[in-house]
## 1
Amino acid sequence: MNSEFTPDEINCFALQSEAARSFMRTCVPKAAFLPAYEHKDVITHVELSLDGLILCVVSVDKVITLWRRVDGFGKWTKYQKFKGHSGAIWRVRFAHPSFGNLLATCSIDANIFLFLESPITKSGRKAFWQHQTTLKYYTSAILDIRFAPFFHGLMLAACTAHGHVIVYEAHDPLNINYFNLIYDIKLGTRLSTIDWNPGRYNEIPILVVGSNSPEVPNDKRLTVLEISTNAPTIRENIQFEPILPNEKVQCVKFAPQIAATYTKMAVATKRRILIYGFFFEKSGKTEKGQAMTRPPRLLGEICDDISSEVMTLQWNSGGAALSVMHDDGTIRIYKQTFGSAFVKIVTINPPSHLLQDKGDTGMPPNHVARHNS
């Protein structure tokens, strides 16, 4: 596979591998466990703000809990808890800090809620999160949402259980009370996960959408959408191999693009993770900027002999380390080495008392976060 890469691309692999080694020499993962009794039902999603200071937890019990980190990297304190939707909350996402402290939640009630944190006043009044606007979608439950990279403006994409990809845009980022539905793309199959290509300002915005429905053909498990100024384009000719028959796509996650000539994307199925590379070049067919002129290339595969299922993924800020969470609460961290191989460097197990709390069904207790879609 290495012979297919240019010398510049191979140099990028080497630089990222060295960066990963340096990063892991200086960083030792620490696990902090917050009291989950704040929620009375299954926790569906946990999201950390980009500055790492705010943690948001959502649950089937329709409650949103916000925690703030104090004393540097020490203690977490709860500073707000409130009811959000009329149905189970499925995902929560933070916007880029350039738009203020803004977060969005989606639910099976087919709504997206936007919350904004008010600033601390001169009188010393504490900051608090306040509901700003509701984006109503009447077709079906919304299962995932993502904010676009900030240089594309304040845009929010979502995918639904009935196979729609919807994109909202705030024409005035200073007034988030008014979002317009700019695209409603019907793909015709249940969609479970979505992510934006981080790219650069001169690249065509790209969305990748995944499906965890067992009835979807292999060539429809992952769909690439180019979001241009005229109309979105579905890249139907792109095939992601080697996704196997009946292999559900649990999560897709792009890595941050740090001075690289390509963008990495991780795709999680139940038992393995596939790493693809997206390459962008100048194309005369585009209005401006760079477009994806060749199909994504398989860079690597993580396939450990583990009985638990993969639930969600997260890259580190340099795009060289990948955290994988399994349905038994275990987190495994992999780093990229030269030649696109990923090596497991650490395993974080849940506390023993959580494992002892399992019932006769073998399912985790309610306070163990799961990310089923």
## 2
Amino acid sequence: MGRFRHGLDSSKIVAVIPLIEHGPNIFIGAGHTAAKAFFEKHGIVVVANVLTEQECQRSVDDVWRHLQELFNPDIDRDKPETWDSKWPSFSHMGILGNTRWLYPQACDNRQNVKIYQVFRTLFDDHELITNVARAGLMRPTKDIYFPSLGKTEDRENWKTMSNWLHLDMNPLTGRTTTYGFEYTAESHFQPSDDPLSAQNKSTNNGMRVRKLQAILALVDCREQDGGFHTVPGFQHYIATWTKSNPKVCLRSNQSSDPTTTQIPWDDPIREHIQCMPIRKGSLLVWDSRLPHGNYPNSSNQMRIIQYLHMAPIADEALRPFPLLKEDLPETFQLTELGEKLYGFKSWESDLAQHRFQEQKNPEILCQVNYERFERAIMKDRCDTEKNTSPVVEPTS
């Protein structure tokens, strides 16, 4: 086993997760005391059946609508030949572009009661907010059937990056990634040579306040389909790792994204990475103090997931992303719970009501307006391309 630079035995770091045939130990129902105990030990838990078969199918349909309406109207789920042109950015990471996923089932999943109960149990707090984030998709890379060719081919260039392992925080400064939420800290994404100034901000609370992240499996995500991997149990040792790796954290703080820390290629904790296949309809939640990432697809099936995080309204660093109800799909119906999770209504506590009355971060409001304009432009462009595409007459 490897050792850290200051002699810490890395073999003592990891609480290895017991795996079963189709993935890590799975719990049914978030209120189970065993599920929470498992999470406290490993920093990760999978809860099954938070979505029905029908909800999964509608979510997948939303993914294809998202691709066709915002990126390329000629993309066809049944024709891999169409999966090259104008494919969204960030595909090398298994992320479906940098555009928020605002489609009916995707929005409904964010107010799903079962999913809310998982986060409520793990946070031990009921006043929660949801983020508004993206979908994830990995194209198949092996033995893909192309109808126009009448044969199968491989696509190595569709593989995502290998060995991607990172923290969505800087454990030296406490800065954390806030994607999908409104952030409150000033200069949150500004590089700095002074980690102490960042440490002293109450909003840089990543090492003091529990942060949770999650993915929702919309199809069966087998190990060979690529997907999520992590170092389970690392939350118990991140403080020691940080003391042993101050230069890594300082470089992150000086970078263009000081809220993310890339784990060095030669770090011995990589010996303890575990892949996490999960079944359709399951929610995988992890502690943000776990190094994690995606590994490439090596199969003929797609991996499709939704990124979905929640946080307590009491978290000083985060607020609901300031969407307007007009930004949501016309056919989507907010529930009473959804009104609060999305931030359109206040929770009951005095703190929640105070937060509800706060002024919005002007930087985020500008971002929201820009994204709204960008979505409209993307949709108009795809509509134009769809209407001007040549009609192919069938051959007799």
## 3
Amino acid sequence: DSIIVQVDRQDASIEAGRKEAGLCPQESVGLSDMQVFRRVKCDERRPHCRRCTSTGRKCDYDSSLSPQSVTRATSVTQSPVSNPRLSPCLDEQEGRALDFFRSVTLPQVAGTNHRDFWGKLILQGAHFDEATYHALLALSSVHENYVTGKDVGARLDAFALKQYNMAIRDHLDVLTVLSRSDEVERPFILPCSIIFICIELMQNHFKSAILLLRNTFTALSMLQARDKEKSLDHIKTGSTDQELLLSRLQFQARALVGPKWGHTYRLRPIIAHAEIPPSFSSVGEAKDCFHSQTYIHGPSGKTKDSPEKPDWPSRYKTALDAYLSSHTSPLSLKDNHRLRLIEIHLLTIPLVPKLNGPNSSSNPVDEMHWDQYTSTFSKILDLVASTIYDLDTHLAPSFSLDFGIIGPLGILTSRCRDPSLRRKAIHLLRIYNRQEGMWHSSLTANVAERLVKIEEAGLVEVEHCTDIPLAARVSEVRLHHDLDQQHVMLCYSRQQSAMESVRIHVQEKIAYW
């Protein structure tokens, strides 16, 4: 009944990073040799170590040690991280990493919608949980390299590698204890796992990230089976942000690897806004309700008994309009940004069911019907442009788990045939320079440019969407990440020729950057 986390081996660059960190393969525990450890390291908590007592071991920790010897994680919130020298338990590099996390990583990764998860739960985890503390330091270091353009997609630097290995080692200690006991505290297992996934994604290690995500769901499923009479909220801290983040990552993983992902894991969060009210009382309530509705009606939240409510976006828009009409004071920049993102997705969600239809020689997909949504595509682009330029997010690389604009722009560029709108969308993707979970603006732009080239090939002049005939249009556009070969395939179907209505399926390699 052990919970085992196992991830494929990393490349040689990580091994080189281990040597720089002064760690030999036998001493380090990276993703290459991730497995359950039987040794439980004393956490030096007074008067008795929690890890030792939970495993029935006698704690040899000397309770007479001075207060300065308590764990570093306990001191994280006791002193301002902006001046790490104020804390005798933090060295300069750790203090700097904590400062960078709070000032840069936290607001960027959280976006405008997950501040409670990253700003409260993760920081609480760093205070009480060794694994989360070291994972936070590793994430901060990797993210600093990411936003400055150093070693993106390459290897971890020595400090990040050391912290990452320590986080993995402590995390596996907790999983080992958890596999043997029903009563052990476990509120930070999921937050720590999400940090690990972020670290892998920022290095473009999609295979490791997807395997970590799958193993996270597997561990949670085992916990659910063992705690059938309890809600999943009992297993973790009571924040739906975690479940929403995981459900979005699962959606992206399924889109990238297709059937290889397997069955859809369903979580059981406590939904605070299951019903849409006549009006909202604040932008925060509107945001929370939107998240809840996207979860309830998404693949992770649906069950065979779930009622179909395809009209929920229009009902939500009615409630949002009622709030805005009664709200007379100006909205903050953050609230305006939140509402723009919500409106972008409200316009996009009704398009999703229309993306994939029957496709056979006897019942071909009519790609011409997308032309009727040209005005919708134009509204989406205006909202996206104002979001990017107002927040000035197009200057440096950025990473976030927040829902954003790459997904909507991906749908737009694959289905909108208006040449002006399509090229404007590609331009926005190019200057956005952003990664949202497993989706990257550069890859989405490359796909869009390839589709334009395919569909406009041989056409003398394209000034309007109607200038692209059905025979030239592609359908069933999707990306497939070959995790073993580490490349991305663009998959689509197209008419064999202008004279033959039979559609053929095409796969071709696409550049990521």
